[in-house]
Structure formats: structure tokens, C-alpha cells
Write a structure and sequence with these properties.
Blueprint: H1 26-33, E1 38-40, E2 44-45, E3 52-54, H2 56-64, E4 73-74, H3 77-86, E5 101-102, H4 105-111, E6 118-123, E7 126-132, E8 135-138, H5 141-149, H6 168-174, E9 179-187, E10 192-193, H7 197-200, H8 204-214, E11 219-224, H9 230-240, E12 250-257, H10 267-279, E13 288-294, H11 302-314, E14 319-322, H12 337-344, E15 365-368, E16 372-375, E17 380-383, E18 394-395, H13 399-407, H14 419-432, H15 439-444, E19 450-451
Parallel strand pairs: 1-6, 11-12, 11-14, 12-13, 14-15
Antiparallel strand pairs: 2-3, 4-9, 5-9, 6-7, 7-9, 8-9, 10-19, 16-17, 16-18
Amino acid sequence: MPRDKHVAGKIPPHGGKLVDRVVRFRERAERMIQGLPAYELQPTKDPKTGLPIRHVGHEIVSICYGFFSPLEGFMTREEVESVLKERRLPDGWLWPMPIVFDIPEEDLKKLGIKEGDQLLLMLHGKPFAILDVDEIFKYDPKELATKTFGTKEAAPGIVQMDFDAKHPGWLQYASTTGTYIGGKVTLINEPVFDEPYSRLWTPPKKAREEMIKRGWRLVIAHQTRNVPHVGHEHLMKFAMLNGDIEPCDAVLVNAIIGVKRLGDYVDEAILEGHEMVNKAGYIAPEHHMVTFTLWDMKYGHPVEAVLHAIIRQNMGCTHHMFGRDHAAVGDYYHPYAAHTLWKQGIPGLGFPEPPHETYKGVLIKPVLMKEILYCRKCGELVYTGCWCNHKSEWSKFSGSFIRSLIIEGVEPPPLIMRPEVFQVIMKWWEKLGTPFVNKTYLSTRKIPPFDLKPMEYSPKK
């Protein structure tokens, strides 16, 4: 067994090779795009509200920079069916959910493209990426959505409710057009991020280099879609102590940045809030790194937990913490479904074995966490079921309660939220006019959250 199999920054990426499909030389990129038919990317929208719920541009960036290794592009029909049936790619590597490029049928006809062609993908009116049209196929969007997340009949006790349009991930898949293009994608115009994204943009190759440079051997990943409260902070600290042989050297915070639900914290506050945890010294900067991945959360709990493990392994992490309601929304899944997945697998969802104990599975090691609570009797924060037996005196960190304080402009007590993190929220409230995602934020923000440089391009005649 290679010595570096479980060393941060040196752990093999999923599939064995870190994908890099980014053209970094402008002259070469401009030669590649000349004469190609062009198509302007648009967000997938909620059929009822018209608000954006997904943008394929996020997935293009994550594919091309290797976050989704070994994927090199969008799935063909064979790959989609293999993933939905067995949660594996046709070559056997574990993969949890479809990554697809959909296009309206009328746009496909206007473009006049056929299998074997290349399509220039435009974003914000500028050349962005090239898609190889390996296959054009149809698939029922609602069937795609339902098979991705599972059913109560197939996974009783794990799936607790039938998925419907109230579930963000189900709605994303169900709102695709039903016409898909499968093929490799190449990024030919690198994103130019504004702050705070720019200073925290850390693709897998860069993250791995940084871990090696800092001498980190064991690094645990923390998945987030929220501004941190003190409970999150203590979960990170406690999880760092749970390496199977020795404590982890550091925690890598990896925020999922994409189209959010109404009421979520704005992305800018999420990133800077986590950054402030080490800037203010609550976690030492030499043991903490804040990064992000472009991806529209599917809220797939155990299914999405596998994708998160793949992303963070590709970024160089050796461990990953999974807690209550990991990547979940509502009551669609059992609160600890992800724990069941990593302990014994979930055959009814297509995972007969734990993802890290199966052939061509992940190498990253799970650290299963419960909750950090406040015990009124002890007068301190406690870890569920371990640190005291005063269950009647426990109080949970209520996200809705914290939000209710913030929306009234009331600073939460330091026991709940660090004052420096609260000030970050106030800063972005003043800049954006809201601390939480609302319809104005969704309809006016730049999606994806970056610019592109102008490129010389002559369209197909």
C-alpha cells in the first residue's frame, strides 16, 4: 500500500487522477473556439416562481478544476443509468448522482448540432467553455429526480417522505428540459472572482499544494452552507480530535457556493464568517483553511454525503465529518441517514456497503458526529450523549432562533455566535441590503459569481 494513501495533499484523488481541463493560454483558447456554434448558458428556473434554482456553469467549473474527479464532462445516457442503478460509473468507480447538461429542444434545433460536434458555451456574453457533443439523449426529468434521491419503498426508515417540488434537489432535476448532451467539457476562460471569493478560491491542486506546504498530514473536511455559530466551531474542534490514530492537524472548511434557498445566509457572509473564526483566533489560522466549491446544493443527505466525500478527497483531505442532517432539508431523510451509510451502507439507495469499504470507493475516512448542545446544569457546551447525563437540561443551537435575532438586529449572545462573526453578517447586510437570501438577491446577483475576460471570437457562418 502506498505510504501516501492517507496523507493530506498526497491522498490519491477519486479515480486515481486529478482532472484538469482548463486551458490557461489565451492564444490557444482563442484558436480552439473559432467557428464553433455558440450557446449562452442560462440558469434552470423554478417553473412556479421563475427564480433561478441551478446554474450549469457551477458544474462546469467544478468538473474542469478536478473537484468532481474522475468526471471529465457531462454524463451520457449509459453513465446516467449506471449511476442511478448502481451508484457507479461504467468503469466501476463509485459515483452518487447524475451530473447532466440539459438544453431546450428548440435551442438544440436552432444550433443544428449533431453528435461529434463541439459547442462553445457562452456565459455573461463571453466565451466560457467547449462542450464535446458525444451524445444527445432524452430522459424523463421526474424519473431522473426520483431515482436520484430514492423512495420510501426502496429504503424504508431512511427515506421518510416522498420527494416532491418542495425539495430543492428534486426540483432541480425535475425542472431540467429532458433533452441532454453528454460529453467532455473544457474551460477556456478562467473565472475572475470578486472578493471575498477571490482570496478563498482554492481548487484541488492548489489545496493539495497548500496542505503539503503547511506540513499537514491529517486534515478533516467540514461541509458548510451556513454562517458559523459556536456549535459549528466546537464540532470542528472536537472532530479534529477524532482521527483514528492521532488528532488531525487541521480542518478544511469547504463551503458550497451556488443558488441557495430563500432564507439561507448570503454566500458572502458564509465565507467571511468562517474566515473570521480563524482571523479572530477562535481556531488557530495554522490549523484552519476556508475554501469553497461551486455547486448548487441538492440536499441529498446520504446521497450527497458521498459527493462531498469525493470532493474533499480530491481536495486532499484525509477525513470528513458527517453530522446530524448532513446536507439535508426538511424531513425527507432520517436525521442520521448519513451515519447509517458510513456504518453499514444503504442497499435501498444503491450503496450495499459503506462508501469507504467498497471496491473503487472513496479513500477519505468518515468521522461521525452528533450534536453540540448547551447544558444549563453544567453551564457549558456538551457533546450529545457523552459529556453529561442532564438530558432535560440540554438546549439545541436553533438556526431559526439565531436568524430571528439577527433579522431584528439583535446580536446573539457570545455563547451562541462570536461577535466578530455577527459583525460580518452586519457588514454584508449593509452592502447587499439583506443578510439572508431573498427574491431580490436571487434575481439580481451574478450567477455564477465571477466575471470572464473578453476573447476574440468569430462565430460559425
